[in-house]
């Protein structure tokens, strides 16, 4: 357990006192003061490597029309995503969501979509983490775009365990049948943007898209904060 986790659970007065003793710094450069509690200083934030639009091959896309990501995955991006997911720095989702909303609005097919949908967490994982980072991203994107968020209809019915250490083939097999739509009527003829934090092999997005397609969604897009090379 690190200091910030300990501080998180303490009363605000004590937190302010500890922040006075140990002034928070940017999580990337560790030198700029984090006066505004934004976790990443403006300089580091604007130096995160932006992704360029990629024409993903059909094997990567599956039932998805397109997949777009804001940043290329780098050590710095990894640090920030780690803070969001594992240190519960939920305020970061607002900064991520803002950038993701800009990308969405700049991409005509995305801007015309009907719904934002987070990649669901299995309830076991949700209980461990206490929140779904993809839902937080959807809510932040929605606050900028006004696009509604649908987070109840797609469920993760299989607990797949951590994907990070698996090979591409193992990931594919692991998640292929992990998702189920519980109310297909809600998705008929809809254009849906599935949102996740990181695109790695695309297996998770493809599995979600396959379930959405079976439920009658017409167009399905992927939008992630970062993309691994
Ligand atoms: Zn910095």
Question: What's the SSE blueprint?
Answer:
Blueprint: H1 3-8, H2 12-21, H3 42-47, H4 58-61, E1 66-72, H5 75-86, H6 91-106, H7 108-111, E2 115-118, H8 123-129, H9 133-145, E3 154-156, H10 168-175, E4 179-181, E5 191-199, H11 203-214, E6 219-227
Parallel strand pairs: 1-6, 2-5, 5-6
Antiparallel strand pairs: 3-4
Helix pairs in contact: 6-9
The structure holds zinc ion.
Zinc ion (ZN) binds next to helix 3.
Largest sheet: 4 strands, parallel
| Strands, count | 6
Radius of gyration: 18 Å
What portion of residues belong to β-strands? Answer: 15-25%
Number of helices: 11
The molecules bound to the chains, other than polymers, are: zinc ion
Number of domains: 2
Low-confidence stretches: none
Q: Level of helix content? A: 40-55%
Based on the coordinates given, report the CATH architecture of the largest domain.
3-Layer(aba) Sandwich
Structure description:
The chain has 229 residues and is of the alpha/beta class. The protein has 2 domains: 1-47, no CATH class; 49-227, Rossmann fold (3-Layer(aba) Sandwich), CATH 3.40.50. The protein is built from 11 helices and 6 strands. It has helices at residues 3-8, 12-21, 42-47, 58-61, 75-86, 91-106, 108-111, 123-129, 133-145, 168-175, 203-214, and strands at 66-72, 115-118, 154-156, 179-181, 191-199, 219-227. The strands form 2 sheets. It has a 4-stranded parallel beta sheet, with helices on both faces. The two termini are 31 Å apart. The model has no long low-confidence stretch (mean pLDDT 89). The protein binds zinc ion (ZN). Zinc ion binds at residues 26, 28-29, 32, 41, 43-44.
């Amino acid at each position: 357990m690190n200091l910030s986790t300990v501080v998180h659970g303490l009363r605000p007065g004590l937190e302010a006192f500890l922040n006075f003793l140990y002034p928070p710094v940017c999580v990337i450069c560790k030198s700029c003061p984090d006066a505004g509690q934004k976790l990443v200083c403006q300089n580091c934030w604007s130096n995160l490597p932006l992704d360029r639009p990629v024409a993903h091959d059909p094997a990567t896309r599956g039932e998805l029309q397109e997949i777009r990501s804001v940043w290329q995955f780098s050590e710095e991006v990894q640090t920030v995503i780690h803070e969001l997911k594992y240190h519960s720095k939920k305020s970061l989702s607002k900064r991520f969501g803002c950038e993701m909303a800009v990308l969405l609005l700049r991409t005509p097919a995305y801007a015309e979509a009907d719904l934002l949908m987070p990649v669901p967490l299995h309830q076991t994982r949700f209980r461990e983490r206490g929140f779904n980072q993809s839902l937080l991203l959807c809510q932040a994107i929605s606050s900028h775009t006004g696009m509604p968020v649908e987070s109840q209809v797609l469920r993760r019915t299989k607990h797949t365990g951590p994907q990070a250490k698996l090979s591409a083939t193992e990931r594919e097999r692991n998640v292929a049948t992990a998702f189920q739509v519980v109310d297909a009527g809600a998705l008929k003829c809809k254009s849906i943007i599935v949102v996740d934090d990181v695109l790695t092999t695309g297996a998770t997005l493809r599995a979600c898209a396959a379930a959405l397609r079976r439920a009658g969604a017409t167009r399905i897009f992927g939008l992630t904060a970062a993309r691994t090379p």
